[in-house]
Design goal:
This protein is an alpha+beta fold and 374 residues long. Helix content is 29%, strand content 27%. The chain has two domains: 116 residues, Rieske Iron-sulfur Protein, CATH 2.102.10.10; 219 residues, Naphthalene 1,2-dioxygenase Alpha Subunit, Chain A, domain 1. Strand 15 and strand 16 form a beta hairpin. The structure holds FE2/S2 (inorganic) cluster (FES).
């Protein structure tokens, strides 16, 4: 039975339905960025949780995150993607400490009749959790009690191992004129390779034989492993837990709400990890962000191949990114075309066996949004 309701497309076209959906997702663990971007004291980067702007900043040994809205008159504190410096608002120069408490206000005594420390205003804090180099956040709520490790389930040790060493990630960002859920659906669709990617994916563009298709569900999320080994997921999980995993086949995890992590081969034995995110911006707009880097897994390569990799990567990296971006844009184009007719969608899709995980995704989104109403 389909997990889609007849009006599943409402948030794709109706701003109110979209806002309600996003409001209910603010308490779900959401990927914010990489630890390497807050490696030094004062480093910060901007991100978003369910369309709400937030920023992550290092204060000495501590990493904190806050909603990106000044407690004075709501100016965004961080207006660039990343940077370094004290937490001072650009509008009237209110200054905040690591707890988000205001500690400095120009001419405070004159305009408020008291000292800054007597003013009880602070930034709204974001709850943070780490998995390897990945930083996740959510808006706190008494109902949101599940730890990140519990939320990610079996994906947690795999992500922790995949991101333990991220070398010079290649960053790619792109604005999309389509709803974020359409983009997530496309990544869960193993049926479109030959028609959408005939010139880019090569042999990965083939529809996988059913015997190579391994689908797994963990918590709210799911994964696909391209392997004829029925034990491949257990081997991946155990190998990441004890640090012995060797890259051998393509896999991709879709981690709700909007994160995708994949292992792909550039040309074997060279593998890349891709961290991808489709952040909702509006009912018909999404921001795609991605980080690609050489996989930290061991491979069956010769000594010579390993030693010469820093040189060969000078060529491999741009070639890999060229094809990677083309594939991403081909997917985006499909979503933008569906968005153009989204107002005409009045029934659930008819999913096939290679689109099964789209149904799982919709079931999980319904479950995640059912619990939170504020
Ligand atoms: S809005 Fe930030 S200091 Fe006034």
């Amino acid at each position: 039975m389909s997990e889609f309701s007849p009006n599943w497309a409402k948030p794709l076209v109706e701003p109110d339905a979209f806002r309600d959906e996003q409001r209910r997702l603010t308490h779900v663990w959401t990927f914010l960025g990489l630890g390497r971007d807050v490696a030094n004291d004062g480093d910060w980067f901007r991100a978003s949780i369910a369309t709400r702007s937030v920023f992550v900043q290092r204060f000495g040994q501590t990493v904190r995150a806050f909603e990106n809205v000044c407690a004075h008159r709501s100016y965004p504190l961080r207006i660039e993607a990343k940077g370094n410096g004290p937490l001072i608002c650009g509008f009237h120069h209110w200054k905040y400490d690591r707890d988000g408490k205001v500690i400095g206000i120009p001419i405070c005594n004159m305009v408020y009749g008291k000292q800054p420390h007597e003013i009880d205003r602070r930034l709204r804090p974001i709850e943070l959790a780490h998995c390897g180099e990945m930083i996740f956040g959510r808006f706190p709520s008494p109902e949101a009690t599940q730890s990140l490790e519990e939320y990610l389930g079996d994906a947690f040790p795999i992500l922790a191992f995949m991101t333990k060493k991220i070398e010079q990630p290649m960053y790619f960002e792109r604005a999309i004129q389509a709803n974020w859920r359409l983009n997530m659906h496309l990544t869960l669709d193993d049926n479109h390779g030959p028609s959408v990617h005939p010139n880019t994916l090569g042999r990965h563009g083939y529809i996988p034989s059913m015997s190579m298709r391994r689908y797994f569900r963990f918590g709210a999320s799911s994964g696909y492993l391209f392997s004829d080994d029925e034990e491949c997921f257990t081997k991946l999980l155990n190998g990441c837990r004890d640090g012995t995993y060797r890259a051998s086949h393509y896999f991709v995890f879709q981690l709700l709400p909007d994160l995708i992590v994949a292992l792909a081969d550039a040309d074997r034995p060279f593998w890349f990890c891709n961290i991808m995110q489709y952040s909702a911006v509006a009912h018909d707009r999404t921001t795609f962000r991605s980080w690609s880097y050489p996989a930290p897994f061991a491979t069956d390569s010769s000594w010579f191949t390993r030693v010469t990799r820093p040189i060969s990567d000078l060529f491999r990296r741009p070639i890999y990114m060229h094809y990677y971006k083309r594939v991403v844009v081909e997917d985006i184009t499909v979503c933008e075309r569906i968005q153009e007719v989204a107002h005409q969608i009045d029934r659930p899709p008819m999913l096939c066996a290679l689109e099964e995980r789209i149904d799982w995704f919709e079931a999980s989104i319904r479950e995640l949004t059912a619990g939170h109403t504020k």
